[in-house]
Design a protein that fits this description.
By secondary structure, the chain is mostly beta strands. It is built from no helices and eleven strands.
Length: about 130
């Protein structure tokens, strides 16, 4: 069983920044694509961004493009979501997911492509 764990959530003021981190129990971290999703209060799960296993391909949804940046450091077995210029509507539980799946810019992000999920980390943006 592949374990996924995300961290780095917290409370920030509008316009602030946070960086979320994600790691897995797999030694072969560089064979897994990593994706970030979120679930806001009263809403369904929303796809945000993915990065391919080797970091060569990235797909970020238009709603957060320019503010959220996904990256990874395979030597450290870590992936990140840098979130800048945060807004109150970004308040949500953020999830990291991993699987052996493509991350293609032309492909719609789908939770169905990811079988291993973290427990979520809370991000709250308020004054």
């Amino acid at each position: 069983q592949l374990q996924v764990e995300e961290s780095g959530g917290g409370s920030v003021q509008p316009g602030g920044s946070l960086r979320l981190s994600c790691t897995t129990s797999a030694i072969s971290f560089d064979v897994y694509a990593i994706a970030w999703f979120r679930r806001a209060p009263g809403k369904g799960r929303e796809a945000l961004s993915c990065i391919s296993a080797r970091g060569g391909s990235i797909n970020t949804v238009d709603s957060v493009k320019g503010r959220f940046t996904i990256s990874r450091d395979n030597a450290k077995k870590m992936a990140y979501l840098q979130m800048d210029n945060l807004r109150p509507e970004d308040t949500a539980v953020y999830y990291c997911a991993a699987d052996m799946t493509p991350c293609l810019p032309a492909r719609v992000l789908s939770a169905e492509d990811y079988g291993h999920w973290g427990q979520g980390t809370q991000v709250t943006v308020s004054s």
